[in-house]
Structures are given as structure tokens and as C-alpha cells.
Amino acid sequence: MEAPTLPGSQLRTVFEYESTEAECVAALEFNQGRLNRRVQRTAVGQALSALFLVVWIGFIFLALYLVIEHQDGSGLWFGGVLGALSVLSLLSQLVLRRSTLRIIAAGSEALRGRRTVILEDGGLRSRGPNGERSVAWNGIRSVEEVGGQILIYLDGFSFIPISASAFVVAAERAAILADLRDA
After folding, report:
1. Shortest CA distance to 147 belongs to which of 66, 5, 31?
2. Residue 117's beta-bridge partner residues?
3. Distance between CA atoms of 68 and 36, rounded to whole angstroms?
4. What is the pLDDT of residue 2?
5. Residue 27 CB: number of other CB atoms within 10 A?
6. Count of domains forming the chain
7. Is residue 137 part of a domain?
8. Are residues 104 and 32 in contact, defined by beta-carbon separation less than 8 angstroms?
9. DSSP code at position 160
């Protein structure tokens, strides 16, 4: 892969920024979804998804059976409790996932803190609170967009985020994004 050809000499090649907590959470959620899609493509992932679906359908049928067959009050009460516990379980997992990502984003030096990304002839350099890394253009596996920020993936999991605040205007962001994708 060749180095990006930056159209016009006006485009900057040095970008300094600091990602917000919301951007970090969005990047982590995107990354988690990306990993989940990978797992679901495997046989084990598909089997676990099918098992999860069967268990939830079983809970629904059990709750409905108890409500319909035992209308004396005990079945209705037990079916309602079973249904409520199922819904609470699902909601708690969603809240736990979101709060876990917020905790990671708030405390992660890998995502937070002042950063500099420099586009060079041979690749890009990223400097942040946890050090510096250089990546050749052919070392970039994919480039994704999430809520205005750019995620430069080095493999299936690791990425370099570039905050939307790093760009002066949308045209600059679009040009850099196009160049990174062409690299």
C-alpha cells in the first residue's frame, strides 16, 4: 500500500486532540459489536446464540403456562415473578455492559489523554499518554467511522482513535478519511 496522497498542500498532517469520555465509550461499544459479530460467525458462537434463544423461549412459555393453567393466584404470581425476573436480568446486563464501558473509558490511558497523530510518507505515528507507536500504511487493517471519530484498526481488536475535534472542518476530516481508506 502506498502512502496517502494528501490533496493540496493545505491539509495538515499533524493532528492533536483529546477524546471525550463519550467518544471513548462509543469507540468501545463499536469495538465490542465488531468482536461480537466475529464470534457469532463461529460454530461455537452460533450454538451459544441458539441456546440463549431456546432458554428465553422456554422462560416465556413457562411463564405463560403458569399464568394460564394456574389461575388460582399462585400460578399467576409465580409466572409474573418469573417474567419480571427475566426482564430484570436482561435490563441489568444492558446497564452493566454500559457502565463497564464507561469505567474502562474513564480510566483508560490508551483512549483518554492528549494525543498526537502524524501522517508521514511511510505510515502514521501516534503519541499518547502510554507511549508512541509507528504503523506502516500496509499495517492498517481497516478504517472505521463512529460518531464523527475515525478508528484506525491495526488488527481485529487494536485501534488508534482520532477524535472529531482533531479536524478543523468536515472537509479536512473527509479528505483524511478517504486517504486512510485508500492507503
Report:
1. 31
2. 15, 126
3. 37
4. 45
5. 23
6. 2
7. yes
8. no
9. E
Neighbours of 67 (CB within 10 A): 17
Do 102 and 137 have their domain in common?
no
Answer for the pair 172, 179: CB distance below 8 angstroms, yes or no: no
Distance CA 45, CA 94 (A): 19
Q: SS3 for 156?
A: coil
Q: Which of 59, 80, 107 is the last residue of a domain?
A: 107
User: Facing residues of 136 across strands?
Assistant: 123
Running along the chain, 183 residues long, what does each successive block of 10 average in pLDDT? 47 87 85 77 76 82 74 68 77 75 63 85 89 92 92 88 90 88 81
Could you tell me what percentage of the chain is helix, strand and coil, using 3-state DSSP and rounding each to the nearest 5?
A: 55, 20, 25
pTM of the model: 0.65
Instruction: Please give the C-alpha separations between residue 125 and each of 2, 74, 83, 154, 176, in angstroms, as whole numbers.
Output: 16, 66, 53, 12, 15
In a domain, 5, yes or no: no
Residue with cell 493532528: 15
The span from the CA of 35 to the CA of 44, in Å, is 14
* Residues paired with 131 in a beta bridge: 128
Residue 145's domain comprises 14-19+113-182
Question: How many Cβ atoms sit within 10 Å of the Cβ of residue 161?
Answer: 25
